[in-house]
Design goal:
Shape: globular
Largest sheet: 7 strands, mixed
CATH architecture of the largest domain: Alpha-Beta Complex
Helix content: 10-25%
Oligomer: single chain
Radius of gyration: 22 Å
CATH topology of the largest domain: Spore Coat Polysaccharide Biosynthesis Protein SpsA, Chain A
Distance between the termini: 55 Å
Number of domains: 2
């Protein structure tokens, strides 16, 4: 198989999760007890054998870089190829590129040197388990200029409102790209495109003063390109708001949903060596995901507990997400709450949100 080049575009994924993205980009937001949102895109590329992966980043990326390290969990710690972080600006006074096209224009060396002829371009807001190798085979068999990956959903959810939709004919050709709210073919923000065409389209868009590759090179140029659509059938969650983050996190407490995401080809993430979770006398746990390194002495139900959390005796946590190294002291009560990393709740405190609008406490808050 032709060697593929991975591109994960984070240029627009910055502050869509409000308090959870105060101090990090969206791709670095923790998910499912031990992962970050970017882990799922990187893992999909790893299973396809992609050895050259570039990240388009703009700001708020310190937390992301700490998580990624040298790329070892995704087999990207290599002497040749591997993981490349591509900022957009190199202070060239002659540069006229804008938006995510800056990343392409100002990092042409990466694309020219990468040992592959086909780009697999992805974001991180759509969590999925797309078989990229199979999608690439479809791309070659159809002779497409561009292959867009989509999922047909039976029920339209609020988070789909911002998603792009595809019109697809019986031969798999894309006949329309739009955002009509009643349409059920949700584009997963993954496309496959030959590198030569990708660079040609980027150059053309820059020359015309454009700023968004997908919109200006693909959507607005659809009549000039042979665009096909690959239909994906597996697990899919859109994380583009606090509400969608909370809802899809809570959905993983359903065993079927959890197995759909993790049973086959599980996502890889940064390895942390911590002791098993310690349960004190009197601790009660019901229908919850609990990571390692925790100390639990109170009551936990219908919640997602990340690594290193302390829940003291007499505390009660329900329908909530508690991220790394939070401390919930004796007598505290929280319900429908998201606590970001390193939040310390004092004794006998009470925080209550709603299932549709959870109460969110930003990272490092001391109360």
């Amino acid at each position: 198989m032709n060697r593929l080049i991975g591109v994960i575009n984070l240029d627009k994924e910055l502050d869509h999760l409000k308090e959870l993205t105060y101090f990090r980009c969206g791709a670095a937001v923790p998910f499912a007890g031990r992962y970050r949102l970017i882990d799922f895109a990187l893992s999909n590329m790893m299973y396809a054998g992609i050895l050259d992966t570039a990240l388009f980043i703009r700001r708020k990326y310190r937390s992301l870089l700490d998580h990624l390290g040298d790329g070892r969990p995704w087999d990207l710690d290599r002497k040749r190829g591997g993981l490349f972080v591509l900022p957009p600006d190199w202070n060239d006074p002659t540069d006229t590129s804008k938006g995510d096209l800056q990343h392409v224009h100002n990092n042409l060396d990466f694309f020219k040197r990468a040992a592959g002829e086909t780009i697999v371009h992805s974001g991180t807001q759509h969590i999925n388990k797309v078989d990229i190798a199979d999608a690439y085979r479809f791309h070659k068999e159809t002779g497409a200029d561009v292959t867009l990956i989509y999922r047909h959903v039976e029920q339209l959810e609020p988070e789909y409102g911002a998603c792009i939709r595809l019109e697809v004919d019986e031969d798999g050709r894309v006949t329309g790209i739009h955002q009509e709210q009643d349409h059920h073919n949700i584009y997963l923000e993954i496309f496959i495109m030959d590198k030569k065409l990708y660079l040609q389209q980027a150059e053309r868009c820059i020359a015309h003063g454009d700023s968004n590759f997908f919109r200006d090179a693909i959507q607005r140029n659809a009549g000039q390109l042979n665009i096909h659509a690959y239909r994906y059938e597996g697990y899919h969650a859109v994380i583009n708001s606090v509400e969608s983050y909370f809802k899809n996190s809570m959905a993983l407490l359903d065993q079927k949903q959890y197995q759909a995401l993790f049973q086959e080809r599980p996502a890889h993430t940064k390895i942390k060596y911590e002791a098993p979770t310690r349960y004190l006398d009197g601790a009660e746990i019901q229908n919850s995901l609990v990571a390692n390194g925790c100390m639990i002495g109170g009551k936990v139900e219908n919640s997602v507990i990340f690594r290193g959390v302390q829940i003291h005796k007499g505390a009660r946590v329900s329908n909530s997400i508690i991220m790394q190294k939070c401390v919930i002291r004796e007598g505290a009560v929280i319900e429908n709450v998201i606590l970001d990393k390193d939040v310390k709740l004092p004794e006998a405190s009470t925080l209550i949100g709603s299932a549709k609008s959870p109460y969110v406490i930003a990272k490092n808050t001391k109360m």
